[in-house]
Amino acid sequence: MAKTIWFVLLGIVSLIFSSSFDVQKTNPHHYNHSMISHPIQEIVQQKQAFIPQKLQELDTKKKIIEQEKAQWAQQKIVYLTFDDGPTKYTPQILDILKQNDIKATFFLVGNYIKGKESTVKRLKDDGDEIGLHSMTHNEKLLFLSPESYINEYKQEQSLLQSLGVQTNISRTPYGSKPLLTQAYRDQIFFAHMKVWDWTIDSNDWRYKDQTNLIINQVSSQIKRQHEVVLMHDHGYTVKSLPGIIKLFKDRGYTFQKYNPDLDFMVNFWKDPRL
Question: Is 84 annotated as catalytic?
Answer without folding.
Answer: no
